[in-house]
Amino acid sequence: MVGTGAPGRSALLVANELLREVGGMRALGQADVWRLRRAGIGLAKAVRIAAACELGRRVLAAASDGERCDTPELAASALAPHFAHLEREELKIGLLSRKQRLIAVVDVYAGSVSGTPVRIGELFAEAVRRQASGVLLAHNHPSGDPAPSGDDIRTTRDAAQAGRLLGIEVVDHLVFGAGRWVSLRRSGALA
After folding, report:
1. 96-122, pLDDT tens digit by residue?
2. Domain map (residue ranges) of the chain
3. Separation between Cα atoms, residue 139 and residue 137, nearest integer Å
4. How far is CA 115 from the centre of its chain?
5. Which of 55, 65, 77, 159 is deepest in the core (most CB within 10 A)?
6. What are the backbone angles phi and psi of residue 145, rounded to the nearest 5°?
């Protein structure tokens, strides 16, 4: 994606310097155009690199459409690409068919590095609109620790109760962090 190098520096050397400057491949995937520019890349190259990273994210995310999500492992595999590049906490909802196949993933909240406030009613708006039979709640912990907080457990239980009233099953709530994840269903929070 770097294309050409600079006077006295090959494209490979420029690419390696960029990776070192931004903090590796994961950080490169999270970097926006302005971060790339601060790392010493010209505007055209920065735009090209940022566009390639976004295209890669979209390809990975679209690959999970239609995937079975009837176990925590399958659900985590389908939803993980939606969280791999995030620097702040975000809550997303996986909409599921009756056979627990992924229909779509919807962004619900984007928070800060330390949290995301949640209104339970908003978790189901798109599920009701698209007639989903079930939902997967999922969010990330930018700290890297996927251990659920007390708020995560309360939100999960409140959502499950609201889902029962709406006839929409809350299948699981997954918390992602640094390549790991936790299923709140498996931990008993959805009991």
Report:
1. 999 999 999 999 998 766 666 788 989
2. 11-61, 66-183
3. 7
4. 14
5. 159
6. -95, 110
